[in-house]
Design goal:
It is a single chain. By secondary structure, this protein is mainly α. The chain has one domain. The chain has 4 helices and no strands. It is elongated.
């Protein structure tokens, strides 16, 4: 390999290291921002902790799912005349033309 080609490869490698470093710095900044957001959300959700724990007893719902459900429906269930009304509002009740196996298009 001639020296000119080797120097060009070296510059190319340095350029790629530079770009990689920029990307890693962006990932680190995003990780820090996400951590700040998570901390803020946790603080805001502390007053809903009991409701979240209750919602988590529903099979298949984890902490994030329970938080999402409560953020959508709130903790005041009096607005729903029955549990069926809530399930219908959440679009979780099967349609009349739907079975456990399949539903039309």
């Amino acid at each position: 390999m001639d020296q000119g080609h080797a120097r060009g490869a070296s510059r190319g490698a340095a350029h790629h290291r530079f770009l990689l470093q920029l990307h890693l710095e962006q990932v680190d900044a995003l990780d820090r921002a996400i951590a700040r957001i998570d901390k803020e959300v946790k603080t805001d959700l502390d007053s809903f902790r009991q409701g979240i724990e209750i919602v988590k007893t529903i099979p298949g719902l984890d902490d994030l799912s329970a938080q999402t459900v409560l953020s959508e429906i709130g903790v005041d269930m009096s607005r729903y005349p029955s549990d069926n009304h809530l399930v219908s509002w959440a679009c979780m009740c099967p349609r009349n033309d739907e079975s456990a196996k399949a539903h039309p298009g």
